[in-house]
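Z., the sequence and structure:
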Amino acid sequence: MITVVCKICNIQLSDKIPVYITTPETLKGEFMSIKSFDDLDITDPIMFGLVFSNKHIAQPFIEHLLGIKIDHLETPIPEAVLSYDAEHKGVRYDVFARETNENGETIRSFDLEMQMVDTKELPQRARYYQSVGDGVALSKGDFYTSLREQYIIFLCPVDIFGGGYPIYHFENRAREDSCITLNDLTFKNFYIFKKYEEFTDPVVKAYMKYFATRNADSRETEAINNQVSFYKTDTFIRNKYMTYEFDLHESKEEGRKEAEAKALEEKKAMAKGFRDDGFPLEAISKRTGFTIEEIKAL
């Protein structure tokens, strides 16, 4: 089962696929800070998703990054949420895209992630993103040979691995002989865009420079920059974003109140326990902040 939700565009991958409503905190495990609409740029996941949901931007980008030729790219889905079902943890891809053949069958799939913060779990996240992508790709009764090439692509400002490389390509290989690959068709690539000077391909270098500096000095990056400007003048997108911003703020405020209420109940239980164990009420009051009358009433 696959779930696709775009909080800004409300784009759905297939009308035949059920959609589960997913909040930011259930996807990330924490509340996200959010910028005002006017301050968004290409490194913000929502703007990145909007811009790269355009085939004329996403396709050449993927082709240059991976050194491949794509015959037909389905319209990329921004803020795409994939899930086995409602009971399992879903994943939110910044941009999810598929290359398909003339029959609509997937040839290759791509997850593009603009990752500005090292959350210290990106390798594990890449692993889970890949596994969920595989899980939703196979229907009951399908053969494992139906699994196609899958690329998880992270765009990061800093070198999270500390090896000093501008690009890290990961695939499964034999420890005994690194020339032997598992050939499971899964690839996880990390591009460190602040190292843009070290990229040898001039087109890829221009992409990375744009992410790092917001300076568009190539045909491809000018197209990206123009798309960013277009979305910033789009009233519909602005209004949708403002609604999303409000909903996120309300969710965050509700979560804060719930946390405060839980902490208060725990402090009351602690004070009551001290009281029942015979501790002096004055000492309990000093430690917990409750008045003596309040402690007696617990």
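The CA atoms of residues 161 and 183 lie 24 Å apart. The chain is about 40% helix and 15% strand.

Let me know what you think.
H.
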